[in-house]
Amino acid sequence: MLTIETNQYTFWQEKPHFLLHSDTENFWVMYIIEDGDCNYQIGNQSGQAHRDSILLCPPQVEFRRRVVHPLTFHFIRFNFTSHFFKDQDLLGHFAQANDRILEDCSYLRQLEYCPSDEVSVLQNHFIADIFNTELYRRLFEQHHPTIHSPSIKAAVAFMATHYQDQITINEVAQEIGWSSAYFSRRFKCEVGITPVQYLEHLKMRAVQQLLITTDLPIDTVATKAGYSDGYYLSRKFSACMHTSPSEFRHNHQI
After folding, report:
1. Which residue, among 223, 209, 204, has the nearest Cα to 252 in the 3D structure?
2. Where do the coiled-coil regions begin and end (predicted)?
3. Same domain (yes/no): 204, 108
4. In terms of C-beta density within 10 A (0-12 exposed, 13-18 middle, 19 or more buried), how is residue 172 classed?
5. End-to-end distance of the chain based on CA atoms, in angstroms?
6. Which of 61, 231, 242, 254 has the fewest Cβ atoms nearer than 10 Å?
7. Rounded to an integer, what distance in angstroms lies between the CA atom of residue 87 and that of residue 80?
């Protein structure tokens, strides 16, 4: 659940300095920088913010800041609740603004002096979209990580085309000429999860697709997705999806 209640929005253009070099608010505060640079310290996080930096300061946390080059930025003060982010993610440098977030900022700027009663509803929507856009980016990167190692790329491709053959991690490691232990360490470093977890993700995604798009028996689904039998698949599926394969299929029938 993510809720936003906007208290203030202001667009500052080429601000040469802050009147207050340090401030502590009763609200959340967000800076989305379009141009310029500033040094900041928010709690125990510090650094220099540049174009497209998004800074986030929780209530009752000191925000120290100093303009380095005249700052053009969106200032947002708001109440905020969310169960999707860890506390440490909501302090200091929160994200880099992409085109979607900058579009939200453009809408906020257009609404800044609009007298309509609906403005606050729209402001809440666009600010929530900033958080949702960043949440999507993190989830996408988690499931589609950028892989630099050619060997890890080859291993990922091998798993994607052979997961249904009940391959083992040792077989994947042998395919790229590495030991199983070394492969597991390097894979987690590059991808963020273990090769066992990645392989399980591929198989579970295949199971979901087969359950939704076919009426195949569970034992056949298991074989096609790389599981030994339907009973083992049902146990793994229920643990992962918190529902049985038959219930999942029933709930997705149209």
Report:
1. 209
2. none
3. no
4. buried
5. 27
6. 254
7. 12
Alpha helices in the chain (DSSP H): 99-111, 119-143, 150-162, 169-175, 180-191, 195-213, 218-224, 230-241, 245-251
Contact 132, 146 (CB under 8 A): no
Structure confidence by residue, pLDDT tens digits, 214-242 = 999 999 999 999 999 999 999 999 999 99
Q: pTM for this one?
A: 0.69
Write the CATH number for 10. Answer: 2.60.120.280
Domain membership of residue 205 as a residue range: 150-251
What CATH number has the domain bearing residue 195? 1.10.10.60
Run of H or E including 98 = none
DSSP annotation string for 174-190: HHTT--HHHHHHHHHHH
Q: Work out how many domains the chain is built from and give that number.
A: 2
- pLDDT tens for 66-76 read 999 999 999 99
